[in-house]
Amino acid sequence: MPAQIEGLLNDISTLKTIIASKQVKIEEHEKYIESQRNDIGAQQGEIQTHKDEIQRLKELNKRLNDALFGRSSEKLTSVETRQGLLFNEAETYVAGNEDGEKQTKVKGHSRRKKSGRKPLPDSLPRIEIMHDLSEEEKTGRHCIGQDTSEFLTIVPEKVFVERHVYPKYALEAGVHIEGEPDVKSAPRLVRLFKKSIASNGLVAYILIAKFCDHLPFYRQEKIFARRDVELKRATMCNWAIYAARRSERLLELMSKHIKSGPMVAVDESRLQVLNETGRKNTSLSYMWLIRGGPPDKPAIRYIYRPTREADFLKEYLKGYTGVLMTDGYSAYEAVAYALKLTHAGCWDHARRKFIQASKVAPDSSATKAALKLIGRLYRLEKNAKEHGLSPEELLQLRQKKSKRRLIAFKKWLQKMAAITPPELELGKAINYTLNQWDKFNQYLDNPEIHISNILVENAVRPFAIGRKNWLFSGSPRGAGASAAIYSLIETAKANGHEPYWYLRYLFDKLPHADSDGKLRELLPFNLTPEYIQGFYNTPESNPET
Question: What tens digit of pLDDT does each residue of 514-524 get?
Fold first, then answer.
């Protein structure tokens, strides 16, 4: 052993000093390593933040592209479901169902089957056109049958003038009848639109063209002009406002009917209204939709309001004690709380958010899993309806199957929420669903509550489509009139009426309805389509024929 090392071994204090210095260097090195680890962790965090931001921007870009160029339907086609792709409409139909053919499954393979053409309705009138041989060609032949073919045709609307004639009759010379005038004629037709050139049928046609077929008054003005009829848009607007004003009490009775059912569904849609007092013309107003009444006699009210404040609903629903179904807008919670209503949520809104997430990230297994589970919940409800389950049977089904799936779904959502950035579309869908969870689950314990609020959203759609055509209402009074006409038309449609004939019947009968009892008889859910059709198929019952 070298003398230097042997000396160190005998010098304990020196060894301790050396060891202490080495320990200090080791600690310094460990601190350096830890700092590097922290730096790496921070850098990894920044990298992940950047990745999340990149993904968020990609999703935003995809959403903007979809808004500009994509289709608005939430339904995924079978091609999209299989491939996770979002084709445009033409490509989807070509890839998934060429030439209207259907797939018929046969053991071992599939066969394409022509779907065929639906026969023309028997209710349409027929005009028979005979294509026969000449008398010379028929010589020596006898008829053994005939071939027929039918084609659908149309004649543009006929515009004509109804001339109502009232002959006047005078008493013969020297004749006097007590209590009778010397000159007498038939009673004048009682008309809704007095001192106007409009018949009830014309106004009904004009309102259906705008509020059902989305033709603004200025376009109808041009259409009438092509038929040499001068009909100004301002005149048509005045007719609409007058029809709405005459229907005010009818709509009040409809509102009472809405509160007579087990559930009221509410939604709102934006609207631009010009000339609102104290507001800019660029300000957004809202059209509110309220659907209720007994399930077999639904009613729908549209109500125009200048803001999105929902306080008016507290007064509108005063006295109602059932279920309030809405989306996740926080103002509805205050209404439900104030009126002590059961507040139910609509699964369509959760489903829609996961569909949005699937559009921006079509390969995401998480969005596919969520949509698959929600789809199973919907299928259970659909099967229950198809099998005509009683309320008790429906509750048993929900408690046995739906509840179990929802418990598993919530655990999965909570797990995913911990690892999914909330800024991403998937994160938004997860957090929205968890935040609304109690409302979404209300349907499990009440057979009167639907899993979906689709009926009220279907009533929003005609208004939203119409808004794209007429863009705005010219005044608050016009917006209020639009709300009234939409209420009549959509309630008529919800009760199976052809809306033109319902409005025509309403305008014919409204001048004679001088009590609430007679007005109730004119509400769409108190009439049948067969009754109205029968009324106009009887000439003596038609005041305009």
Answer: 999 999 999 99
pLDDT digits (tens, 9 = 90+) for 370-385: 999 999 999 999 999 9
For residue 324, the cross-strand partners are: 264, 343
For residue 322, the Cα-to-chain-centroid distance in whole angstroms is 22
Which candidate, 211, 234, 291, 209, places its Cα nearest to that of 467? 211
Q: How many angstroms separate the CA atoms of 289 and 272, rounded?
A: 16
Q: What percent of the chain has pLDDT over 90?
A: 48
Q: How far apart (Å, rounded) are the C-alpha atoms in residues 462 and 212?
A: 7
- Distance CA(32)–CA(134), nearest Å, equals 110
Residue 222 is encoded by which pair of tokens? 């041009």
pTM attached to this predicted model: 0.74
Counting DSSP H helices and E strands in the chain, the numbers are 21, 9
Name the token pair of 108.
């071992």
Q: Using CA atoms, how far apart are residues 319 and 460, in angstroms rounded to an integer? A: 25
| 181 HSE (CA, 13 A, CB side) | 7
Is 528 in contact with 297 (CB distance < 8 Å)?
Answer: no
User: How does 407-439 read in b/e, with b if 16+ C-beta sit within 10 Å?
Assistant: eebeeebeebeeebeeebbbbbbbebbeebbeb
Tell me the domain boundaries of the chain.
347-451
Q: For the chain, what is the mean pLDDT?
A: 83
**How far apart (Å, rounded) are the C-alpha atoms in residues 67 and 69?**
6
Helix ranges (H only) for 317-360 are 330-339, 347-360
Question: pLDDT by residue (tens digit) across 149-188?
Answer: 888 888 777 888 889 999 999 988 888 888 888 898 998 8
Cα distance between residue 289 and residue 387, in whole Å: 31
Candidates 479, 495, 510, 473; CA nearest to 191 is 510
